[in-house]
Design a protein that fits this description.
Layout: H1 26-57, H2 62-70, E1 72-73, E2 82-83, H3 84-110, H4 116-141, H5 146-149, H6 160-170, H7 176-200, H8 207-212, H9 214-226, H10 228-233, H11 237-256, H12 261-269, H13 280-296, H14 308-332, H15 339-347, H16 350-377, H17 388-397, H18 403-413, H19 418-448, H20 450-456
Antiparallel strand pairs: 1-2
Helix pairs in contact: 1-2, 1-6, 1-7, 1-14, 3-7, 3-12, 3-14, 4-7, 4-16, 6-7, 6-19, 9-11, 11-12, 14-18, 15-19, 16-17, 16-19, 17-19, 18-19
GO molecular function: sodium:proton antiporter activity
Subcellular location: Cell inner membrane; Cell membrane
Family: Belongs to the NhaA Na(+)/H(+) (TC 2.A.33) antiporter family.
């Protein structure tokens, strides 16, 4: 059963070190921490690219900026003569969604979400964080006409890079369970957004190229599943063998009318998570053995070796966080505001109001409501070292919608339209408000958790694993 005050909250007269700590898999803790570090760097680059784009779009350099964004190149017979902005949205973001697919598959196959009682809370929170903002947006824009309603999915997305960057800056002492909760929520959120794009923002679907895409996808999956060790031993091999097949799948999906970023997820799901010869049952048994050993302070068994998914994630994440997503943001976030009058017109548009209210208010309400319902009606519970105030902070932080929100705005309204420009202003404003409010709350919580982080570093028996992961 969920609790209103976490067991790690300070007790006025209790001495340091008298707190009760819960445990999770230490290897998983290290893996999540590594991902968060990379996403934090990506978030910084994303913010920098956004600021530069806004400056260029609202200065004398605006004509040059929009000329580059709208410049078209490619191969027209395959319907691939696209603008630079479209290439960044359809092509580069496929890399981002590929990584999201890898992370999601790994979490459910061999990660902390392999158990239903662990997975149900953040998954339900993600669903609530998608449904409620969409309903709020529709309620606000219903009278504005059918064109405005095309943006109903814009406020449903959470930007992993931005949200994690904020969490890293203001919440360095927050417990790992809270970071894992945010990361899991955002990954599931991305999967839901991908599904929305595939089903609601893909028009005039041509089935022949979609069916034809199954052939290279099957070859790609066979190679990845049959020879994972080869691709791990030879860093050049995925680029020479898997990448060309992936590009063909991407091109055929793009030709079919389904948004091409969906191809990134399909390709990710074809990658094996576990090393060859290790079944999911073996992986679960090994992970459970680690948890049991930590719980009883026994010697922790060695972790399973990395699978191909981990290897590719390690190699590709810098490309996504350091190049693909910032470039997309650079060409997507540049909006000519038009001075004070233009800004006022933008933020008073029902579309903009709907987006801002849905991000800042609807997103946290949806996440909290779903979390409360699940923890009160099932055996699922929050991690023992989390308090509800922590979840509130993360729920507000999840209102930072950027990358996928910008993409859905362009799909719904068309790049460069008035509606798209107003939506993008609202996405930026709403995300900024959510980030600031969450930062204030989480900064206060981070101070109270500082002692916990100090405890996590203590390794009195010098066995390489902090004692907090071995205690009852």
């Amino acid at each position: 059963m969920a609790h209103l005050a976490g067991p790690t909250d300070p007790v006025p007269d209790s001495p340091p070190g008298s707190r009760i700590f819960s445990r999770s898999s230490y290897p998983e803790h290290l893996r999540i921490t590594s991902i968060l570090r990379k996403e934090t760097v990506g978030g910084g680059l994303l913010l920098l690219a956004t600021v530069i784009a806004l400056v260029l779009a609202n200065t004398a350099a605006a004509d040059a900026y929009f000329a580059v964004r709208d410049f078209r190149f490619g191969y027209e017979p395959w319907h691939l003569e696209l603008s630079v902005g479209t290439w960044s949205a359809d092509g580069l973001l496929a890399i981002f969604f590929f990584l999201a697919g890898l992370e999601l598959k790994r979490e459910f196959v061999a990660g902390d979400l392999r158990k239903f009682d662990r997975a149900i809370v953040p998954v339900a929170a993600a669903v609530g964080g998608v449904v409620v903002p969409a309903l709020i947006y529709v309620a606000i824009t219903f009278s504005a006409g059918p064109e405005a309603l095309r943006g109903w999915a814009i406020p449903t997305a959470t930007d992993i890079a931005f949200a994690v960057a904020v969490l890293a800056v203001v919440g360095s002492h927050l417990p790992s369970a809270l970071r894992i909760f945010l990361l899991t929520l955002a990954v599931v959120d991305d999967l839901l957004a991908i599904s929305i794009i595939a089903f609601f923002y893909s028009e005039d679907i041509a089935f022949p190229p979609l069916l034809l895409a199954i052939v290279p996808l099957a070859v790609y999956a066979f190679a990845a599943q049959r020879f994972p060790a080869f691709f791990q031993r030879h860093p050049w091999s995925p680029w020479v063998i898997l990448l060309p097949l992936g590009i063909i799948v991407w091109a055929l999906v793009h030709e079919s009318g389904v948004h091409a970023t969906v191809a990134g997820v399909l390709l990710a799901f074809a990658i094996p998570v576990l090393p060859r010869g290790v079944t999911r049952a073996d992986a679960v048994k090994s992970a459970d053995a680690v948890d049991a050993a930590e719980a009883s302070a026994d010697e922790v068994p060695a972790a399973q070796p990395d699978g191909l998914a981990d290897t590719l994630e390690h190699r590709i994440r810098p490309l996504s966080a350091g190049f693909a997503v910032p470039v997309f943001a650079f060409f997507s976030a540049g909006v000519a505001v038009g001075g004070i009058d233009g800004l006022v017109n933008a933020i008073t548009d029902p579309i903009a109001i709907g987006i801002m209210v849905a991000l800042v208010i609807g997103k946290p309400i949806g996440i909290l409501l779903a979390t409360v319902v699940v923890t009160k009606t099932t055996k699922a519970a929050l991690a023992p070292d989390l308090a509800w105030i922590d979840i509130i902070g993360v729920a507000i932080l999840a209102g930072v919608g950027f990358t996928v929100s910008l993409l859905i705005s362009e799909l719904g309204f068309g790049q460069g339209t008035v509606e798209d420009d107003h939506a993008k202003v609202a996405i930026l404003a709403g995300s900024l408000i959510a980030a600031l409010v969450a930062a204030v709350l989480l900064l206060r919580r981070s101070k109270r958790y500082r002692e916990i982080e100090e405890q996590e570093r203590i390794d009195a028996d010098d066995d390489g694993i902090p004692d907090v992961f071995e205690q009852q």
